[in-house]
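JOB MANIFEST
job_type = single_chain_structure
chain_count = 1
residues = 270
[input]
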Amino acid sequence: MSVVLACVVPPVTAVLYGSLGVRRRREARWRRTLAERYAAATADDPYIGTDELWWPEDDVQACAARLVLDGLVTVNHRGNLGLTAAGADPERRAGHPLPDALLAALRRRTASAALGNLLVHDTAFRAARAEFHAAVRARLDAGKPRTPRPPGCLTVVGVLLLVLELTFTTMALLDHRPRGTVDWTASVLVGAALLAQFLWLHLSERRGDAEAWRCDPSAGYPERAGVHPALTELAASDPESAARLRTSRLRQRRRRNRGRRRRGNAGAGV
C-alpha cells in the first residue's frame, strides 16, 4: 500500500507547487510590467503620482516650489504666496498644467494667500488638479496588461479534492504498518509529501489573506520613489523658502488683524 501511495502522492505534491510557482511568476511579471510603465511615465513627468504622497512632498508643494524657483511667486514669513512682476504677466506660463493652475489661482486673488487656503477654497485649482491626475491614470490604464485571473470554481473544487486526498492518504498511512525497507522508504516519502501538501494549504491561505488586505494593484500604481526635483532644488538653494512653503500649506484660513481694531474703526472712534 505504501508503494502505491508513493507513486501517487509525491507527483500530486509536485503539481501543486508547480501551479503555485507558475501563478506567482505570472503575477510578478504583471507587476513588473506595471512598474516599468509607471517608471517610464514618471521619468517624463515627475508630477505623476505625487497626489498620493504625504503632503510635504505632494504635487501641490512641488507646484509652489517650481513657481518660487522660476521667480513667478514669492512666499513671505507668514507663508502667504504673492505674485512677482513676472508672475502677474498673463502671458507668462510655468510650462506644466499643475503649476499653471496654481499660478492662475493666485492671479484670481486680489491679495496674497496661503497655499493651504488656496487648496481648500479654490475649486478651480482642485478641479484642474483632479483632472490632470485622472487623465494620467486613464492614459496609463489604456495600455495596462491584463490582470491575472483570480482563482475560480475550479480552484475551489481542486482544494476540496486535495482535502479528500489528504484525509484518505493519512488514514491509509496510519492504518498500514510498513514491512521491510521498501515499505518504510515509501512510507517516509509519502509522509514527507503529506507534510508538503499541508504546507501548501497554509501558504495558499496566507497568500489569500495578503491579497484580501492588500490594495488591488489594478486600482493604483506603485509609489513614486524619491522627492520631486523642484522640492529638492528649493531645499538646497533656498531652505528658508522651503520652510515657509510648509508653513503656508498648514494655513487654511486667513486671519485678519488678529484681534486688533481696523484703522477705519479706530479713526471713527477718535
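[summary]
Confidence is low (pLDDT under 50) at residues 209-222, 257-270.
Strands lie at 73-75, 80-83, 113-114.
exit_status = 0
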